[in-house]
Specification:
about 120 residues, alpha+beta, Elongation Factor Tu (Ef-tu), domain 3, 2 domains, about 15% helix
Length: about 120
């Protein structure tokens, strides 16, 4: 969609580990950067699924903190408020996930967000 077009790399959106990008065929814009990161390194950020007990608004962001350090608020890529729970996809520091950081919704700092698993991403 126009809101997110050209704002995120394939790795940030997990295309490289979900099977959305094929590294064995074809050419596409940005292929060199995507392949270099895939074969040589690990992205510092990834998209993660989180669950909130509170409703998410268009102005919400995700606050990340670990070991007493506040990190820059993370952007929410997409969200859905339902009767069964509120889910969001956000670009988070991979290090924050491995260090078991606290994640909070910017407009509801008293209720922690729960990191949910995705079928292609090991937590």
């Amino acid at each position: 969609d126009k809101l997110h077009s050209e704002k995120y790399t394939s790795q940030l959106l997990n295309y490289d580990i979900s099977g959305a990008v094929d590294f064995d065929k074809g050419c596409y814009t940005g292929q060199e950067i995507v392949a270099r990161t895939y074969y040589r390194g690990t992205p510092k950020k990834r998209m993660f699924l989180l669950k909130s007990e509170k409703s998410i608004s268009p102005d919400s962001s995700v606050l990340q903190s670990f070991e007493g350090q506040e990190k820059k608020p993370a952007k929410i890529v997409s969200y859905c408020n339902t009767e069964n729970g509120n889910l969001l996809l956000a670009i988070l520091d991979a290090e924050a996930i491995t260090r078991k950081a606290k994640f909070l919704l910017s407009d509801s700092v008293t209720v922690p967000l729960q990191v949910m698993s995705l079928p292609y991403l090991k937590l």
